[in-house]
Amino acid sequence: MKQITSVQNPFIKSLVQLQEKAKVRKQTGTFLIEGKREIELALKVGYELETILFLSDIISEKQLNDLTIKPLNVIEISKDVYQKLAYRDTTEGILAIAKTKSLALSNLKLSKNPLILVGESLEKPGNLGAILRTADAANIDAVIIANPKSDLYNPNIVRSSVGCLFTRQIAVGTTEEVIAYLKANSINIYSATLQDSTEYHTQNYTTPTALVVGTEATGLSEKWRTESTKNIIIPMQGEIDSMNVSVAAAILLFEAKRQRGF
User: Is the CA virtual torsion 183, 189, 191, 195 positive or negative?
Assistant: First the structure.
């Protein structure tokens, strides 16, 4: 089995680049996954692994074999190398290089009565990760990111979603493409916006539904407001007029789930 002990190793340096630069992830069609649970979730939905890197001080070869992973390469790394690559100290001493998947809208496979969350121009990895966790908790059909500002395979998003990047279907597209897709599939659009809106709990989400949220700073673009089935608002009773986008998404999704009998 190959071993790498130096952080100056060219291959390790290339992995640092893979972590830090979306351009490199796009060029190579690969990204890094950190943690046993995250790797298992990725494998469960068909992500292909190229290489496993593990720290034998934390995870044994037997535990590695128990994961039923079949990558092209398995490399034992030193503690220094692991600390250079890992974001957390609690990820079971294992990382994987995985191949990215197409995130095209045409790849989505929806149920007969889908519930979808759309986020427009979301850029903070923590918010995206929290939204993906909420989407998993609500067991919705898909998450669609319109006009993405962040690469979804950014390690911060992989980490903050605690693997939920892999548990829901995800697609990206321009706002125009996403709206066209939803309309072509007869999915009602409910846009969370301040303008021309009605309180969210008064609407019926038991039919094919897309709930759309934007950034706290700028909200949704005009296109969503004019193309929606209905604009909706979460009543605010304090001094401010907005809340964290991941919190707003959770409120809307679980109202839809409540109406659908969970």
Answer: positive
50 membership: H or E segment, kind and range: strand 49-54
pLDDT at 205: 98
Where is 18: in which H helix or E strand? helix 10-20
Buried b / exposed e across 131-148, counting CB within 10 Å, b at 16+?
Answer: bbbbbbebebbbbbbbbb
Where would I find the beta strands (DSSP E) of 121-214?
142-146, 169-173, 188-192, 198-199, 209-213
Round to whole Å and give the CA distance between 29 and 194.
39
Q: Residue type at 129? A: G
Place of tokens 């190229």: 50
* Residue 81 pLDDT: 95
Closest CA to 115 of 148, 142, 75, 87: 142
Q: What pLDDT shows up at residue 216?
A: 78
The string of DSSP codes covering 198-224 is EEGGGS--SSSEEEEE-BTTTBS-HHH
The CA distances from residue 81 to 24, 77, 85, 160, 261, in Å, are 20, 6, 6, 22, 49
pTM over 0.85: yes
Low-confidence ranges of the chain (pLDDT < 50): none
Strand, coil or helix: what is 33? strand
- How high is the pLDDT of residue 201? 97
pLDDT at 27: 97
Compute, in degrees rounded to 10, the torsion defined by CA atoms 193, 198, 204, 209.
Answer: -20
Please tell me the distance from the alpha carbon of residue 141 to that of residue 146, in angstroms, as a whole number.
Answer: 16
